Known about the structure:
It is built from 13 helices and 7 strands. By secondary structure, the chain is an alpha+beta fold.
Amino acid sequence: MIxxxxxxxxxxxxxxxxxxxxxxxxxxxxxxxxxxxFGIALPLPMMAVVLALLIAFNLVSMWRWRNxxxxxxxxxxxxxxxxxxxxxxxxxxSGGAAxxxxxxxxxxxxxxxxxxxxxxxxxxxxxxxxxxxxxxxxAGPVTIPAAHYAQGLLLCxxxxxxxxxxxxxxxxxxxxxxxxxxxLLRQRAAEEEHIVRMGLLASGAAxxxxxxxxxxxxxxxxxxxxxxxxxxxxxxxxxxxxxxxxNRCKTIVSGILLSxxxxxxxxxxxxxxxxxxxxxxxNWRTTRPVRAFEYIKGFDDDSTIVSDExxxxxxxxxxxxxxxxxxxxxxxxxxxxxxxxxLRVCDNGPGFAPAMLAQFGRPYQSSKGRPGGGLGLxxxxxxxxxxxxxxxxxxxxxxxxxxxxxxPLTSLMLEEEQEEDDEF
Length: 424
């Protein structure tokens, strides 16, 4: 089996179909002009049959390849052969090799060289050469007067030049789009490799941190029961704060291990969008030094989803970045736009620099000026992409920033409910 030629949205068959329509209209105009203006008697019925077959073939091609994104080399090779043979038939009925439009065979050779693999392009060149030789041997029923040869040759040159320019420009756009797509895929692959390395590092660090955190927790519990500390209310309050932060560290470590797939024994938690966001906001507010935080929930209908640790971490990373940039005020607005969950985080900080907006989500793109800066948004963006969503950023006026998270609810729903929505 021959491998597909294109895996991007526009196939190479589409330019061929368009060029074939140009050839059809060009042939009709030329036949009418030569027959009625030059007065050369052409076998119109036979040439009309060839045109009808070419139109039928192009209609079938349009129907077959309309929604297809992959075209095998043999399909392109066959389509070009149809064009070569129909051109040969039309030239046979209109003067053979003496017809100046015989140079249109060069266009077929150019198309084969650009679109096909070497074996197929050489085959097209050989077949067109054989067709020209056949036309010199069998000239056909019509003789082209020498007086009109130069005019036809000029017209053939103009037509060839115009078609080559149009086609090469179209193919160049397709190739540029392919290169851009490949560059984006290479960037995504590099980012995913970076994430894997960080995931392995985080998982290893979480394992290593488990033992010292457990030791600190035991020692802290012993201190709280020692007489010299238990009688001191101020010390007990400090111990309570330390225990709260210690529990938070344990939760973070557990979340890292869970995201790494090392706690599979725990079943996913079934919840709703509103409950999930309410619990996340409540937990985030109690563990961060928030001064003025506004939580706006702008949707009435609710959906059952599966609570996802990666989703929690994504939203918390965005909120943490906003809090660091704007410790005095920030908002989280949640709303539903058809089948998407839209989360907008607004802050009152300095906003994003233009260079950061241009490379939003790239690792180590940060204005914080410390090692590891920018990894939070980088990880958040990749979590959103994994769920089929996206994260976009913009600046507020007169200052501040807005980060918008768009997530398809179907990626968060239970499979049963997703099937019901699809049926509905």
